[in-house]
Amino acid sequence: MTDKAVILLSGGLDSATTLAIAKSAGYQCFALSFDYGQRHRAELDAVKRILAEYPDVPHKTIHIDMNQFGGSALTDTEIAIPETPSDGIPVTYVPARNTIFLSLALGWAEVLDAAAIFIGVNAVDYSGYPDCRPEYIEAFQSLANLATKRGVEGQVIKLETPLIHLTKADIIKTGNELGVDYSLTVSCYAADVDGKACGHCDSCRLRAAGFAAAGLDDPTIYK
Amino acid sequence: MTDKAVILLSGGLDSATTLAIAKSAGYQCFALSFDYGQRHRAELDAVKRILAEYPDVPHKTIHIDMNQFGGSALTDTEIAIPETPSDGIPVTYVPARNTIFLSLALGWAEVLDAAAIFIGVNAVDYSGYPDCRPEYIEAFQSLANLATKRGVEGQVIKLETPLIHLTKADIIKTGNELGVDYSLTVSCYAADVDGKACGHCDSCRLRAAGFAAAGLDDPTIYK
User: Fold this and answer.
1) pTM of the model
2) Residue range B148-162, pLDDT digits in tens
3) Which domain does B193 fall in, by range?
4) How many Å lie between the alpha carbon of A138 and the closest alpha carbon of chain B?
5) For chain B, what is the domain count?
6) Nearest residue on chain A to B30, alpha-carbon basis
7) Contacts of B94 in chain A (CB under 8 A)
8) Which residues fall within 8 angstroms of residue A97, CB to CB, at 6 or more apart?
9) What CATH number is attached to the domain comprising A32?
């Protein structure tokens, strides 16, 4: 029987690549997205465009009103998106975001009896968020083994992070070989409603540098 | 400065006691509840009644449509609430529920710069859920230390579980001494819209036995 996997799909470059990797590894994939009050809602349209390429992948979008908490430039319109890199953890960090997303993925994975959860975190060309680091992922794996019925019964739900040690250029090269159409994806923190990118935010800069280093044309549509 | 704490408040006996303990320990408390498609929605009314006794405690209710996943008698109306104890993990187990709730509490705790999260899990008189065990709580603490900005900066958000090793009778005695009015709380998995309890489900049985063992009158309103 084909193993099932839940794939966290944000609509960005990394998660689109992660989905392509999980598919190519032979998993039966289930895509999970979040409507969490993010400013960059063009992401959710990007998710739909990406999934149109994978008609056999079921998809759920979970609504969570995380903007009730505030505290991040990505969910609080009163905090400006920075255009220059910061020292330490930037204001675009959303408190506990990956923990919340992985927890919900864990819930769906349990119900599906899935063998894996794929998340496109990256600890090389990234924004310095604490919940993208390998030691964080290991801690979540330990938690998942104890938290679930499947874990108690001796079968783990494996947290797969195929991008974690790749540069942005290597991520793009990998996705390119797997046929990912990056023009469908949106990475910008301040994308407009049509998904056009600002070209200035941290996420835009990392993405543009990745295409340059990969020696590939950047298909991103800028404002 | 008074330390802040986020208190998970479900409207049941355990979480009402936990709030009273956190208040008596001197924390500035912030109550967090979830509307997750639970069948026993009388819980959310109980939360409001309990908090009417604590007018200085801010409160948020986060909506999460976990019933999109199904897989539990508490969120899926097609699965019956059992009236006899089961071997192993019962069908009332909601996949990854405490992980999801604690993750969201962690997000709010980060924004508040809170020192603690209180959760009323219990590993003595409980339903056998994997995410109520001490080793699960320890794993979440390790995760929280790595997941958060506060953790990276060397200050933990402490997960406090004051009930974890208490019997239901001891929980009730503790709450009684702290002035908790248990007639305001709802524990029943199948409570009616007015919060009246069925008296038959696992949760009702544990609660009734607790009052009996504590030698206190049971103020629960049964159907």
Assistant:
1) 0.90
2) 877 778 888 999 999
3) 4-214
4) 9
5) 1
6) A69
7) 107
8) A36, A66, A129, A131, B107
9) 3.40.50.620
